[in-house]
Specification:
The protein is α+β, with helices and mostly antiparallel strands. The protein has 3 domains: about 30 residues; about 100 residues, Multidrug efflux transporter AcrB pore domain (Alpha-Beta Plaits, 2-Layer Sandwich); about 55 residues, no CATH class. The chain is built from 6 helices and 9 strands, in the order H-H-E-H-E-E-H-E-E-E-H-E-H-E-E. The strands form 3 sheets. A 4-stranded antiparallel beta sheet has the order 2-3-1-6, with helices on one face. A 3-stranded antiparallel beta sheet has the order 7-9-8, with helices on one face. Strands 4-5 form a two-stranded antiparallel ribbon. The radius of gyration is 31 Å and the shape is flat.
């Protein structure tokens, strides 16, 4: 006597899809149209804005060793900025003739406000009697931040055609002047040396 155990396992959703293939095709078409529409209307940026919450203090002091730079420039600056809030990390580099202090802030403070706070403290340090001088004038630390969105071009325009290179360069100059007139544009450059530009002028728009 033999016993045969038969188990028929089916997945209800698959069975329903097979039996209602027309509905599945319609749904696929709808999803395809919606996806294509979303892709076409999706905003694009070649160079997305990058917010860097790091402020730098650069101070040249010619004719001094790294030890003197650290003692007279770097250490006073680091002591002066200790009271600033929202600082997450401070690093510094002292080398011959030059000091660089890097201050990293958390994301809770705007970059412009962080830069202004650092500048105020640096001005206070600079006003002290112990701040070094060079050529009968006090050293001038430079406070700055890196703005990647401003450094990278938002648009590149290539000019080409069946025209002499001199004429293409004239068109490039004219187009650059017109673009630079827009109030939203910071800077327009034409790649290549001015006396001898590239064969195809390329305009960088920032």
């Amino acid at each position: 006597m033999s016993l045969e155990n038969k188990s028929n396992k089916t997945f209800g959703l698959s069975v329903w899809a097979i039996r209602n293939s027309t509905i599945i095709y319609v749904l696929m078409g709808i999803f395809l149209i919606l996806g294509g529409s979303a892709y076409v209307n999706m905003p694009r940026e070649n160079f997305p804005e990058i917010t860097e919450t790091t402020i730098f203090i650069s101070t040249p002091y010619p004719g001094n060793t790294a030890q003197d730079i650290e003692r007279f420039v770097t250490d006073p600056i680091e002591d002066g900025i200790k009271g600033i809030s929202n600082i997450s990390e401070v690093t510094s580099t002292s080398q011959d003739d030059y000091s660089l202090v890097s201050i990293e802030f958390d994301e809770d403070i705007p970059v412009d406000l962080a830069k202004q706070k650092v500048k105020d403290e640096v001005d206070a340090v600079k006003a002290s009697e112990d701040w070094p001088t060079f050529n009968n004038a006090k050293l001038e630390p430079t406070v700055f931040n890196l703005n990647f969105s401003e450094e990278m071009p938002i648009l590149n325009v290539s000019i080409q055609g069946d025209y002499p290179i001199d004429l293409l360069n004239e068109y490039a100059d004219l187009l650059a002047e017109r673009i630079e007139e827009l109030t939203q544009i910071k800077e327009v450059n034409i790649r290549g040396d001015k006396p001898k530009k590239l064969k195809l002028p390329l305009i960088h728009v920032k």
